[in-house]
Amino acid sequence: MRSFRVRVGVGVLLLGGFVLVSAGRSGSAQVAAPATPALRLTAELIDGYQEARAHGWRFLPGQAIVRFKAGTTQMRRARALSALRGQPAVGSLEWIGDSAVVRDPTERDARLLVERLLDQPEVESAEPNYLRRLPATRFPGIAIENSAARPAGTPNDELYSRLQWNFNLLDMPSAWNINDGGSSSVIVGVIDTGVTTQQQTVTLPLFTGVSIQQVPMLFDVNPDLPATRLVSPRDFIFFAAGSPVVDMTGHGSHVSATIAEETNNALRLAGMAYRTKILPVKVCVGYWELMIANAQLNRPGFLVPPDEDGFCTESAISQGIRYAVDNGAKVINLSLGGSDASTLERDAITYAVQNGAFVSISAGNDFEDGNPTNYPASYAATIDGAMSVGAIGKSETRAHYSSTGTWVEIAAPGGDDRTPGSGEDSGVIWQSTLRFTDQDPSVIIPRFDRYNAIGYQGTSMAAPHVSALAALLRSQGVTDPKAIEAIIRATAKDLGDKGKDPSFGYGLIQPRAALFGRGLIR
Questions:
Q1: Is 138 helix (H, G, I), strand (E, B) or coil?
Q2: Which CATH code of 3.40.50.720, 3.40.50.1100, 3.30.360.10, 3.30.70.1510 fits the domain covering 59-130?
Q3: Backbone CA torsion sign across 420, 372, 345, 500
Q4: Which of 90, 320, 338, 447 falls between 20 and 30 A from 35, CA-CA?
């Protein structure tokens, strides 16, 4: 969901009212031989996104998600599809569980495509292929000097004591005394912008202002979340199958770092469940993925950067959830969302829980923008084993942006700072992730191999705190997602109105109390 990111140390960069700040030392890459992997980001998706943006649509043009009634034969499916203007073939359907993506480029308004499908007796349900958001806002800050001083009992990570107020607010040092970072057998699936999984130089096409050139681009693994902690990565939107996963915005890397960043290694910052593994699934893209794919289509020119941090498709998200579960993830993090209901996403979350995976979902950052119901977060209230997470700031009050509703179930630190200007005093969530100035749209050739301590805020940042707590509980033998939710609820610190309320749900997570109470329910 919408996240706001801050950067301190390298300088302040203002873009569209957003500023990012960085702190700490950056990594360096020893590049490998250039390679040119195939792309799966097609003209259909690039042009569809641009068209949707121009029309104010929250879905991809010319695409729908359809579910046929049980027992419908191939012939009857073909009959239903023949009612569409473009008459797509049954063999062109892309299946995701019991549903399929239907493509009809002759009908751009997907709502009309859905109406025609719903008129067919063979069709049980249909909906557009919705777009989900990964927004980001950046604020000004100042350089932060490292200090060796640290309170007793805290990790020795160089910036922990000065920046990670969120972990101190949750009393994580006491929780780590009970459970020292979880178990390496527990896998957390992060369905997001990806996490870079290997050091390499990749030669990719790019418009550089005059012409399209083949440009070597540097990628490297986050030194504070090494490749040995990353398992079964998969890209469903940018690179073709078999290629490495890369992060080109930093959102997925930041989320993953809150969950599992290396801890007590005297480098940068800490993660909550720092012995667990991350399964990175890339389902979202930003400006540079669009620019590279556009250049590969031999189309010169600069594209308008996506709103905020980029976008994801409902179909890719649902594929990603199912893939992560099928490949061993027992916790799923979804820091994304939008204001349109999706049966496909709901089915994928239900599939995850039924197969033993707890799901944490950001509640949304739209309180000051009409406070609409957010999806897939709102599904969590009716699915035991999935939780919708609102955000609080340093003062344990609701973050000004955090969406509210009866479907908000729990709260965690997400940051709450409208005008931070003093670096370490900023009320944002700090983790190690990509340096923003290296891939800002104002540069000509980006690089993705350098990391810093970066501040974000949003319910995107609150959700991974709950994912990490679930991973710690799973490490202690609580295997039922419903039991994990029950423990988190029962041990939460009540905030706001007494009992469950629309701002905080059941309250602020309490990791130490939850880990102490693990024997109550399994």
A1: coil
A2: 3.30.70.1510
A3: positive
A4: 320
